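#dry-run=false #mode=assembly
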Amino acid sequence: MVYRQTENATKRLADKRARILAAARDLVADGGWAAAQVDHVAAKAGVATGTVYRHWSSKAELCAEIVATVSAREVGIVKAVADADGSPVEKLDAAIRTFASRALRGRRLAYALIAEPVDPEVETVRLDYRAQLARCLERILREGIMRGAFPRLDPAVAAACIVGAFMEALVGPLAPAKGTGPRADRHLIEQITQFCLRASVGMTEQKA
Amino acid sequence: MVYRQTENATKRLADKRARILAAARDLVADGGWAAAQVDHVAAKAGVATGTVYRHWSSKAELCAEIVATVSAREVGIVKAVADADGSPVEKLDAAIRTFASRALRGRRLAYALIAEPVDPEVETVRLDYRAQLARCLERILREGIMRGAFPRLDPAVAAACIVGAFMEALVGPLAPAKGTGPRADRHLIEQITQFCLRASVGMTEQKA
DNA sequence: TCAAGGAATGAACTATGGTTCACAGTTTGA
DNA sequence: TCAAACTGTGAACCATAGTTCATTCCTTGA
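#status=ok
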């Protein structure tokens, strides 16, 4: 007689939530934030507009969750690289290379997550992501400086420069047009990595 | 009997136009594009909303003109540096240093002009600015490579990296908080310049 | 099968901000 | 001074996109 949420019902609800989140993420992933209108998200997820508001109290919250979810994964990967064994140079190389190749797999999404401005509430979360990324790099840089492998650069500024450099070259408007193929992508990653490494280390041999 | 524009009238009109443009620029310069609502611009310029539309057929056109005006000046300055006498290394150093110190004088405006996205019509103009900047750098890089002063980097990618690096470190959200004072600004410019130079040249001595 | 209550719906509402336009005010040349 | 032509005005208009809510539908436990 009294309604009580069953396990099944809870799961259904969670599924729907996940479906909406995924739909929104996909829309952002190929049209940026502007494409993620609540109506469109709802349509893509196969629910009514109002349903979205059963799961998030505003569009901004939904967007913030997209940023948080996707970026947590990316930061985790880069952090793992930073924490792994190896020399600072190797770690920096791996971190940049890893991040760059992952970002290239979803350029539009990467751009939206790193660079494209949005409303303040989402901006906060995104800024946090950006700062976390920079902090991972900064840690590697500090270690390298202490060990004498890198020159006496300001690690905070250098980390910002690295984030900016690959952001711009990979996913920014100056980046080569999309769909240039895997060969061009590899070249791009190689160039960016070498640029950042030279900037940090002071010198590096040509790899390719 | 037939009305004809006198010299005075033309001047009055031009003055008003300039006043509106300046008002809009100032608003962007401290609140970004979002602050440049037509109502506010008109109020700041001391005219009615409708008057704005006597000079530009849409807000986008007004914004585009702001970008074009301000950026033409900046590109001109950087280009002059690139065209001056000196070794590629010196030129690159000067170009980055010049741009950076100018951008720091108006961070918010610089950010709006380089990074902050706006509607497509304005975006086109801004993209052009960004690309022109990158091209100036690219020319210096090419020259350096030909002369053997720089390693065999891809000049287009490296130029994008440089633009991204100083953009992020100077005016992006990772940049240190505003109002840190001239000492911190000098440090920042120094660090960014050295970062980009090391990345391009492969090695550079410490200057400060 | 049925009543209770949560979940879904989507048309209507609202807020924001760009754009228009009928009207009033100015300038010009005679 | 006067009429023609241009310029300025700002309230009203419109388009977009986020949010609400009365209603309908579905699930639950008896």
